[in-house]
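Quick one - first record:
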Amino acid sequence: MVSASSDHGIRVYKKYEDFSALLHKNNDTTYVVNFWATWCKPCVEELPYFDQLAEKHKGEKVKVLLVSMDFADQVKGRLKPFIKKKKVQSEVVVFDAPKPNEWIPKIDEKWSGAIPATYIYRGKEHSFYERSFDYETLESVVQPFLKK
């Protein structure tokens, strides 16, 4: 049974095993998965660049997924109003799994757990960045995946 539930239209994942399916789709689409939170200033500053990337590559096989690390009980009172106010266009899910020291290295063994962090993949190829981006740098790290 999948532990993902919908809280006001936003999927909430409570188990890494369910969430990990979002990180392992083996097809010809490039996935840009950004880990962020409403309380993280660098995360909030870079959010528009992910929407800009999605808009630029509309019609191409590029999917942006914004993974909020906010607590699941904050979806209604904090996350949804934030998304509306900031006019976030990309898909947002919440990942609120316990025991981060167990699942963080499964996403990337070099990840300290700090955010913002971005996981980009296409098929079996992937890159991981524990840093914030400006638009030009984000576009430049996604480009090699689009040329495959």
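second record:
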Amino acid sequence: MKEHVKVVVHFIDDIVTKGYVNDFNANRSSFHLYEGTNGSLLNPPILLEMKEIKAVFFVKTFEGNKGYFERNEFMESDRNLGRRVEVTFIDGEVIRGYTVDYAPLLRGFYLIPADPDSNNIQIFVVSNAVMRICFI
């Protein structure tokens, strides 16, 4: 049985939902989400289409740390986790991190946040939701 992983899904239309995934695959056009944060997987999952999504945040906790201000800057002391990149989404949000699998024609790519103390373990960025990508 596959492990259920905590995610926060940001849709293109600004809706955000939290839950668990066990069949996420960057090469597929859809995946299932078990909505909710209490760990109960009793309700049937909902099918999400990648074309409706901005990004999928794979998180340590659903709550995060409200008092922590995540840095969006790279530090010389950071481990090199791939190419440094700045992503600007079509809604204007900007995030920075590292990527090893960016290719312009793919459905999306994984981004490791610039801040190693981020609540986000990694982010799957959907290419259709990106306005600009700059390598730093």
